[in-house]
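Entry for the shared binder. Reason: the reviewer on the internal report wants the predicted structure included alongside the sequence.
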Amino acid sequence: MVEINNNNNNNNNNNNNKALQTKYYATKILNTETDSKCRFCQQFDETVDHIISVCPILAKEQYIKRHDRVCAQLHFNIRKETGVQLDKKHWYEHLPKSVETSQGGKVTILWDQQVQTDRTIPNNKPDIIILDNEKRTCMLIDVAISGDRNVIKKAEKILKY
């Protein structure tokens, strides 16, 4: 049985117990640490925003993995919606192939393929390209995983193509 107490001090303690125990939190809120620098990069305050969005050490591998898993789920769902044969039952088991075509050839899905353009565009490999072979149209999908600090990435990706 859970006892609910409306005492403000108790509620604040409960909320503090639910907070992510970053070094910044321990230094500034709990006063138990003397150094709030990130345990990975040792450069910036270890805040939640820093850990999930901007730590240069985590950016090398973990952010890319997170981005690729989001894209893989999106790719899986696109395959399902466009009639491309599913190779796995669940999205988290799915490993996208570079080129896949629906039965009958109506839709082709490209994964991480370079786009030929009339001007030079650095990093011009959208995550997913959906080609509608009947309508002769395509949709470029370039996923950006952003935190509060790097929301500008969305605008950059829109302008890129």
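Summary line for the report: Helices lie at 8-18, 23-28, 48-54, 56-59, 62-82, 152-160.
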